[in-house]
Amino acid sequence: MKYLLASALCLLVSTACSGTNPGNSNENEAATQQAPTTSGETALVVFFSHAGDNYSVGNIEVGNTKIVADYITELTGADQFEIVTHKYDGMAYKPLCDLAKEELEKGELPEFEGSVDVSKYETIFIGGPVWWGTYPQVMFTFFKKYDLNGKTIIPFTTHEGSGLGGCVEDVKAAYPNATVNEGFSMYGHDVRTGKPEVAKWLKTLGF
User: Are strands 179-180 and 79-82 parallel, antiparallel or unpaired?
Assistant: First the structure.
């Protein structure tokens, strides 16, 4: 597990700009999951993923979180909604981290493209990189716009040392009346060979 100083650049890989949650790994986070009811329903994977310059993996054409989201869709048959904003396009890693920190400190809610009908889904996976200890602020824009209370929510993250960070707690705060799973995280530099680990985790959920 890698750590960079929180006061230095930014902390996290796989578009993860900071966070300190030692001991989180895809193995120990999947071990105690409660399986959602999946019979007769279709799940939805909602995610934000950042391509381009990423810590540890360099300049990538497909973001780390998107790869994990695609595994989930392939293995479960879930639908997808990608949270897309062009605000960060073409940014180098350090300026991106600085911007992400500024957004977090100011509580900014960047806009994103498109919309999705969440009413027909009972189980919703929510994924993203960890930037400064939680999901990118654009995902909080989604949380404000869409009411997922009463649903089963399954968080997942890609990172380079923060695990799930504060993502699970932040989802619970956004949706106090939802059933929020303990979640799953994977190192960004592992995702391209990580499909078996994702499949293992999904089996603990009943998929």
Answer: unpaired
User: In one letter, which amino acid is 87?
Assistant: K
Nearest to 63 by CA among 34, 37, 94, 84: 84
CA distances from 32 to 16, 28, 63, 148, 181 (A): 24, 8, 27, 23, 10
Query: Which two tokens mark 32?
Result: 């105690």
Tell me the per-residue pLDDT of 52-97, one tens digit each, with 9 for 90 and over. 888 888 888 999 999 999 999 999 999 999 999 999 998 998 999 9
Q: Which of 166, 194, 198 is nearest to 184 (CA)?
A: 198
Distances (CA, A) of 27 to 45, 83, 131, 185, 198: 21, 27, 22, 9, 10
Using one digit for the tens of pLDDT, what is the confidence trace for 11-54? 343 445 644 443 344 433 443 344 444 434 689 999 999 998 88
CA 63 to chain centre: 11
